[in-house]
Design a protein that fits this description.
single chain, mainly alpha, 4 domains, 3-stranded antiparallel beta sheet, 23 helices
Length: 568
């Protein structure tokens, strides 16, 4: 066969083209391999094509005989094929079925997508490859390819499948938000190359932009500032490479979406200070896991802002100096004072009237049945999670999932103070951030309303170790998804639901109550399991349980009317 049969010429430039063997199309996700040889000289193109043909033959042989490992670039073809098929399928289904959606549906489905993505990434980190065995087998069967499940290539395909599923859930979050025109949901069906990382010189890769950015700052930065800025940029690139395997020389600025930026911001919440020096052998996600397990302090809000700001500045530099015309996904991500105010404005606490309506509703004064608890009747369901969850949220500021996943063992006395212990001691538990792991003092008014009596009764009669065994684990492996929908309907039935109120509003109510009682923001944030925003937080041990107990009991909660909610 003459080598020139592998050559085609487009716009006076030679390209290499080689058909993929039929039994390998399903593995590689391509019918043919096409790559620009970047030359108009026939002799040069012929020599390059010969080398490339040899490389491809060795690749095909390795896949067939399992004599070697696939390279990262080869795995990338499988990853892209699966991601494309999954994403287009989800997009098509959404376009056909989405109609008159509510904001709460979008928020819930986006939460599910993020949760599933986290689970898949954990499977990938722990090499739980059996979780995608059915998916890999189906892929191989569809394309009539046989590979032993014990082979190393099968395991590589499984890892590529897990990466594709993780990014499928990222795209799913984009889809459920209604952003169907997002570039991440489109795939180039034109000529491709097995070397997925090959980029045109005109594309703005992070490696190229950072190099020019540092050179531009050569005379305005001191050595220490330069090292600090480069370290922050490199940390993001390490974080991103852990997720999808792409290095800085192939990752473009344009490829980072708003969803990616938000996920990175959430990741920073759990990062310990000096993580690269303290845990040089751990990946970013492993370091976060280690910090959570060991109860380590995490980056202050100021430090998190700095990590985000350096990326935003890099994008601004690219716009100004390198003609970058894409979006800056990191713009405005930092929690500045203005951003915090805007965030508060976007989410409302419940008003005094709304709280009075809620806590004097049939659920607390007498309802028809538990399933029709918005209708008046004689049943006061004090043994139900529906009764206690809103009350606990108001008095503690705890998140919905934090409440519903409590076990009986999590309610106890410490130093004479009754507490709720927020931990991850059971497989069905999860906490949002490292700061979420905490002891929450129980307000005296909640005790007066009969909460400890309820707990004691549960400990005596319960066959389940969980406090709210009637709250069932949903398909997304959370207790909150089902309750969230019910609570939203309940607010609607009471006529107090607005676009800016939800169960989370109770958390805002406690923050407002702390502020009105003159309690410091730092203690309030610590109490509610959030970062205080102070750099000094990383070097302290937090507030004592006694101090938190004293401060929470300064709040009288007058909106819980004694005449409406009797002590039980």
């Amino acid at each position: 066969m003459h080598m020139q049969t592998y050559l085609i010429k487009r716009q006076n430039v030679y390209h290499f083209r080689r058909r993929v063997p039929k039994n390998l199309i399903g593995i590689l996700g391509k019918n043919e391999v096409v790559k620009s040889l970047r030359t108009s000289d026939f002799r040069t193109a012929t020599r390059a094509a010969m080398v490339m043909a040899d490389e491809l033959e060795r690749l095909f042989e390795r896949i067939q005989t399992d004599t070697d490992l696939l390279t990262q670039k080869e795995e990338e073809l499988v990853y892209k094929h699966v991601l494309k098929e999954n994403t287009l399928s989800l997009k098509k289904e959404a376009l056909q079925t989405f109609d008159n959606r509510q904001a709460e549906d979008v928020e819930l489905e986006a939460f599910h997508a993020r949760t599933f993505r986290a689970e898949v990434l954990e499977d990938l980190r722990l090499s739980k490859l059996d979780t995608v065995k059915d998916d890999v087998d189906k892929l191989l069967k569809d394309f009539k390819v046989t590979i032993e499940s014990s082979s190393v290539i099968y395991k590589q395909l499984s890892r590529a499948m897990l990466r594709a599923l993780a990014d499928t859930y990222s795209n799913a979050e984009i889809i459920v938000s209604g952003d169907f025109e997002n570039p991440k949901l489109y795939f180039d069906d034109g000529y491709s190359t097995i070397e997925n990382g090959i980029q045109s010189e005109s594309l703005l890769t992070f490696e190229r932009v950072i190099s020019k950015y540092i050179k531009d700052k050569e005379f305005s930065w001191g050595k220490k500032q330069r090292e600090a800025q480069v370290a922050k940029l490199n940390y993001f690139l390490t974080y991103a490479e852990e997720i999808d395997g792409l290095s800085a020389n192939v990752r473009t600025l344009e490829s980072i979406t708003s969803n990616d930026a938000r996920n990175y911001k959430e990741h920073l919440h759990g990062v310990p200070p000096n993580t690269s020096k303290r845990f040089p052998d751990l990946t970013p996600s492993q370091a976060v896991k280690k910090a959570e397990q060991d109860g380590l302090n995490t980056l202050s809000q100021t430090s998190q802002n700095n990590y985000l700001q350096v990326l935003s500045t890099l994008y601004s530099f690219a716009k100004k100096e390198l003609d970058y015309d894409g979006k800056n996904p990191f713009e405005g991500r930092g929690e500045t004072k203005a951003a915090k105010k805007l965030q508060r404005d976007q989410r409302d606490s419940f008003s005094q009237r709304q709280l009075e309506v809620l806590f004097s509703s049939p659920l607390y004064t007498g309802c028809k049945t538990l399933s029709s608890c918005h209708l008046s009747g004689s049943l006061v369901p004090t043994k139900s999670h529906k009764y206690w969850t809103p009350l606990i949220a108001l008095f503690t500021g705890m998140r919905m999932q934090e409440i519903l996943q409590l076990y009986l063992e999590d309610v106890y006395q410490k130093d004479g103070i009754w507490v709720l212990d927020l931990n991850t001691n059971h497989k069905d538990k999860n906490l949002k951030t490292t700061q979420s792991r905490r002891l929450v003092p129980i307000h005296k008014r909640l005790i007066e309303l009969g909460f400890l009596d309820f707990v004691r009764d549960k400990k005596t009669t319960n066959t389940s170790p969980r406090l709210f065994e009637d709250a069932k684990l949903a398909s997304d492996k959370t207790y909150s998804s089902t309750f969230s929908k019910w609570f939203s309907r309940y607010l609607n039935n009471l006529g107090i639901k607005t676009d800016k109120t939800s169960f989370h509003s109770l958390r805002h109510n406690l923050k407002d109550s702390f502020r009105e009682a003159g309690v410091s923001d730092e203690l309030a944030e610590n109490f509610m399991g959030r970062s205080t925003g102070s750099t000094g937080e990383a070097y302290g041990t937090g507030f004592s349980l006694k101090k938190q107990h004293e401060e929470i009991n300064k709040i009288a909660f007058q909106h819980i009317l004694p005449s409406r909610l009797s002590c039980r």
